[in-house]
Amino acid sequence: MEKNSEGTLVLVLLTLIEVFLSGAVEVQPSISPAVAGGPLTLSLSPSTTLNSGSWAVGASLILTWVGEQQAVFPTYIGRASVNVSTGALTLNPITLVDSGVYIVQSNDPQFTANTSIAVVEPVSNVTLSVNQTNLVEFSSSAVVTCSVSSGSSLSFLWLNGSSEVTASDRVQLTDGNATLTILNVTRYDQGPFTCYVFNSVSNGSNTVNFTVFYGPDNMALTINGQSMTSFLVGSNLTLLCSAQSSPPAQLQWAFRGQNVNTTGPMLYLYNATENQSGPYSCLAFNNATTVNTTITTQITIANSSGSQQQEANVWLLPLLLLAALLLSLPGKI
């Protein structure tokens, strides 16, 4: 009876040890998430001496071992091995299809442990596909698609310069943010636009710039760098015309509605005469946008002596009228 009691006690102790080991042993990956193309080792913690066991991913067996002997299943031959002493499994190289729940089982001692492994492929060779890079303001739309040669579990982020691009009435982000569409571009949509592609193990980027044709608009016309438009006969005048335009606008000058033989931003009037008084116009034309616009200013060129005589006459006439009135009064003859 004593021997039976001792045997029962041993079995209970062994059962308690197995339960303890089953709850205490954990599988620790050498890297998580795992990088496709690289090695992955799944070790047991705490370190345990095993006499036999098996590894599986999901319902698919990878290998088994007993003592010093191990058997690798066909789909893992050449890239799976086990440390028969510690039970550590090594896969090299690991692939995307190797993602899953890895289970280790041992009968000596008896326990089961598992861990979930995600395999991620690094990002490589980010490229941009663009419908067109030369655009016309308010009439063209840009479509840019970002792609990679390889990579998994990808996220996409777009920047305009250093500012993040977000969706709006004119901006669309589709295909999981891989495609950027800008409707009715403006002059502020020239970029650079950068697509950043990333996952938990790597990242990459590529950039595109646009040429946006716009204008001419916001025209300005100054004379001698001032806003005044009245000058004396004999003055030398420099008329300067400017317009916001891409490409730069072609500028043509006109006087009293008739083109003059002058192009470019400046028109010179040397030793100006009264006959040169009148409306001066600057006409701007953009070949790319086919838009033209005009600005006109009225210039007055007057004789200084004539102006003084006219001013004296303005003061003299009331005085003469007053004198005539006084002389006409009775008793003043």
Helix content: 10-25%
Helical segment count: 2
Q: Strand-and-helix sequence, N→C?
A: HEEEEEEEEEEEEEEEEEEEEEEEEEEEEH
Which CATH class of the largest domain? Mainly Beta
Please give a structural write-up.
By secondary structure, the protein is mainly beta. It has three domains: about 1-120, Sandwich (Immunoglobulin-like); about 125-210, Immunoglobulin-like, CATH 2.60.40.10; about 215-305, Immunoglobulins (Immunoglobulin-like, Sandwich), CATH 2.60.40.10. About 15% of the residues lie in helices and about 50% in strands. It has helices at about 1-25, 305-325; strands at about 25-30, 35, 40-45, 50-55, 60-65, 70, 80, 90, 100-110, 110-115, 120, 125-130, 135, 140-150, 155-160, 165, 170-175, 180, 195-200, 205-210, 210-225, 230, 235-245, 250-255, 260-265, 265-270, 280-285, 290-300. The strands form seven sheets. A five-stranded antiparallel beta sheet has the order 6-5-4-9-10. It has a five-stranded mixed beta sheet with strand order 22-28-27-24-25. The protein has a four-stranded antiparallel beta sheet with strand order 1-3-8-7, with no helix packed on it. A hairpin with a 2-residue loop joins strand 4 (about 50-55) and strand 5. The N and C termini lie far apart (about 170 Å).
